[in-house]
Structure formats: structure tokens, C-alpha cells
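Dear support,

I submitted the protein below through the web form. The confirmation email said the job was done, but the results page showed an empty box. After a refresh the structure appeared. I'm attaching both so you can tell me whether what I see now is the final result or a partial one.
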Amino acid sequence: MAAEEIFQEITKALERGESVALATIVKVSGSAPRKEGAKILVKPDGSTVGTIGGGTLEATVIREALQALAEGKPRLLHYGLRADQHPEDLGVCGGDVEIFVDVISPPETLLLIGGGHVSLALAKLAKELGYRIAVLDEQSDFASKERFPFADKVLAGDLASLLESFPITPHTWVVIATRSHETDALALEKVINSPASYIGLLGSRRKVALIFKRLREKGFEESLLAKVFAPIGLDIGAETPEEIAISIMAEMVLHKRGGSGKPLSKLHREG
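What the results page shows now:
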């Protein structure tokens, strides 16, 4: 299968918000079923496009690719193709192959539900960090290309309808920051069961408690509520919309990259 067809499948997967793994033979020593550059694309459901030679080697690489997808990390594999020499040998060709498995993921999207001052500041910051920006609001004054000229998608209208049709994937980060308890609660109800990587709710502890109480009364389980970052952001004493945006983005980076959230100077002294 031509490489162009594989890349077409990659494009389609990214448009669906789906990650895929691309395994490429990068080095061959001796005899092997395929030469350098041979590729196989592995989708999350285990289906494939292309081939690196079939047989036990290909089946093993597909398993490794699925594991790479699950972890979100690339890997370099080495296999011998010699019979009866080592347990990991996968054939009788007599050679060795190195295969690089890359995980290709769609761009991360920051979905801002509410187009107020904090959302505007956060959108500017997130755009600098490479996020695609989507803004939803009930009012066109707050969800407009004039207000968010750098956003990739800006939609105004009924929030329930907009959220029911908006594609939320594991590469979506959601921040709820509307102008009322009611719409905040509505938005959270619509996204809390989604596969979003991060869901944050802007508001005071009292506001969060009231919204959580409402969701509990509607039957939402504690395990779902526990995955919501609320009140959103890290405690840095933020007051202005720009400072609050920094506290939110810092929490998002912490969630994505890991870390303690402690000052580096304190870790240095402890260390």
C-alpha cells in the first residue's frame, strides 16, 4: 500500500479526534521481509493500514503499537529474525530490524464554555501554548470572531444544543466559566460524562458546592464529580482575569505533565 494512503488515513483519524500509531522500519541488518521505510498504521481498535511484512513480527508490532497508544508514548523496538537463538526471535530470515512506533495525536483543543473576561485571557494564553481554541456562549456579543479573532471555532446559541453536537475527545480540555450558576450547572451536566482530558469549573467554593449538590440530587456519582477541577486553578493569589488565567493554565500543565506544584526554590532546598 502506498505511503500516501497511510497518510490519508492519518488525516482522517486526526479529523475524527483519534490518535493512531505509525510503525516504521528504520534499520535492517541482514535479511528481513521488508526494507527500511516500510510502514504500518495501527488504529485504536486494532485495525491496520499497510504492512511491515506480516507474520509474527507484524502481530507483535501491532500489540506494541496498541500499548504505545494506551500510554501516549512512542517507542523504539528491536527484533531478531533468527530461529532458535533467542526467545525474542520472530522469524527465520536471519536478520535484525529496528522499528520506531510513533503516536500521532490530534491537536489539543481548549473548549471554553462562556466567553467572559477570564475565558478571553485564558484563550490568548492557551493559543500561545499550541491549543486549538473553541468558544461557546449563549450571547453572540461574547462568542464572536471580533472578540476571539484567534479562535478556531466560535459558536453562539443555546448551550445545551451546542454541547450536544460539539465533539469532545480525550484531546479536549474543558473550562466552564459562564455568567450564571444555572448555565454552569447545565454545561457541567453535559460534559461530565465525556472523555475530556480535563474539566474545570470557575467559581467560588460556595458556587461549586451548590452545583455539585444539584448534580448529586440528579444522580451523578461521586466518582464523576471527583474528576472535575473545581474551584479551578492553583492557589497563587490571583485576582485579575489575566492572573486567574495563569492559575488555570498552570493547573492544566500540572495535570498534563505532572509535578508537585511546589516552588522550585523550595524543592531545591528540600533536595
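Response: this is the final, complete result; the empty box was a page-load delay. The chain is about 35% helix and 20% strand.
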